[in-house]
Amino acid sequence: YVKQQGGDDVFWYHKAINEHNAHNIQLESELRAATNEGQFVPYYQPKFALDTGMITGFEALVRWQHPTRGLLKPIDFIDAIISHKLSLELFSQMAVQIAEQLTIWQGLGFDQHICINADAAEFSNPDFFDLVSNLLIEHDVAANQLHIEVTESSLIQRHANVKKQLNLLKKLGICLALDDFGTGYASLSYLQEYPFDFIKIDKSFISKITDDRTQRAIVKAILDLAEALDMQVIAEGIENEQQRDLLLSMGCQYGQGYWFGKPMTAEQATQMLTQQHLSKSNPS
Ligand code: C2E
Ligand code: MG
Ligand code: MG
Ligand code: MG
Fold first, then answer.
1. pLDDT in tens, 70-114
2. In the chain, pLDDT over 70 holds for what percent of residues?
3. Which residue has better confidence, 23 or 20?
4. Ligand 1: residues within 6 Å at CB?
5. Contact 155/193 with Cβ under 8 angstroms?
6. Considering the entire predicted model, what is its pTM?
7. Deepest of 123, 154, 183, 231, by most Cβ within 10 A of its Cβ?
8. Could you read off the pLDDT of 111-145 as tens digits, one per residue?
9. In what residue span(s) does the EAL domain sit (predicted)?
10. Rounded to whole angstroms, what are the CA distances from 27 to 79, 100, 121, 122, 190?
11. CB 158 within 8 A of CB 119
12. Are 174 and 148 in contact (CB under 8 A)?
């Protein structure tokens, strides 16, 4: 680990130990090919209102359509993306596809938002804001249709530009969510310091919520805090109805999880929206 000093900001980064080994070189060239050839695709996981069960939006989660290894999940390549400084390329590839999807849904009469994940490395890039604002203009997408999620651990690193960029994005009308809340050791003052609209409670708290009093107490405390700060809460990783019912009774508004829907292709997400639309117009 190397300590870096820049202005007021002190952060630590991991110096890749095996930077030069053959595996890494191959992975790097594969990642570059993937960015050039458009092998990164968004999968969409629905977010829903816990009370009505209606879809309120989707989170885009990257998948790598690898030419020989099949469909890869972020855990297999996200760290390499960051260490090879390809974050902004990934972000822009995801963002373009998301903007196109929003336009398709708009055309079908589905008024949805899509949430994109970003890490601190992206925010610290001075081109990030321009990339986002140009994207909205070029694709004629309203700012409030795009949400951006940032993990708590991204903020901890205290990259110089993060706060500035988040404030600019917020001014543009983009909704911001603090992802994986509770896992990144962020101090609670971050909630005041940064302009977040949503807090996402990490799935590690939700998984034991029905049988662990302590986890339940933590979730309750987060919900109270969010209410006091006028923020909305999304519970991640809801895997069964009991968890949904309990969270609803505790006052949580939104949820995501395998119980409601796994990350899916754009076509499957469109089907889900179509079904919702049909059942709304023909209630059984
Ligand atoms: P995240 O943003 O916190 O996303 C939630 C993760 O939990 C996703 O994993 C999702 O598939 C999974 N999940 C959703 N519901 C459930 C559930 O009920 N149970 C369980 N066990 N898991 C559930 P995934 O897709 O593998 O993504 C992992 C992480 O990779 C994401 O965590 C996010 O931090 C990162 N990531 C994903 N896409 C992008 C991207 O485009 N850019 C960046 N920078 N990071 C991304
Ligand atoms: Mg997320
Ligand atoms: Mg999360
Ligand atoms: Mg996560």
1. 999 999 999 999 889 899 999 999 999 999 999 999 999 999 999
2. 90
3. 23
4. 45, 61-62, 73-75, 78, 90, 94, 117-119, 149, 151, 179-180, 203, 236-239, 256-258, 263
5. no
6. 0.91
7. 123
8. 999 999 998 778 778 889 999 999 999 999 999 99
9. 24-277
10. 11, 29, 19, 20, 35
11. no
12. yes
Tokens representing residue 32 in the block: 């570059």
pLDDT band at 9 (very low <50, low <70, confident <90, very high): very low
Instruction: For residue 51, give both structure tokens.
Output: 């009370």
Q: Which atom of ligand 1 is nearest the CA belonging to 256?
A: 15
Give the C-alpha separation, 204 to 253, whole Å. 18
71, 90, 117, 149, best to mutate for ligand 1 pocket (most atoms within 8 Å of CB): 117
CA distance 202 to 179: 7
How many residues are recorded in the chain?
A: 284
CB distance 88 to 130 below 8 Å:
no
In angstroms, what is the span from residue 180 Cα to ligand 4's centroid?
Answer: 5
CB contact at 8 A, 234 and 256: yes
Give one DSSP letter per residue of 135-151, joined into a string. HHHHTT--GGGEEEEEE
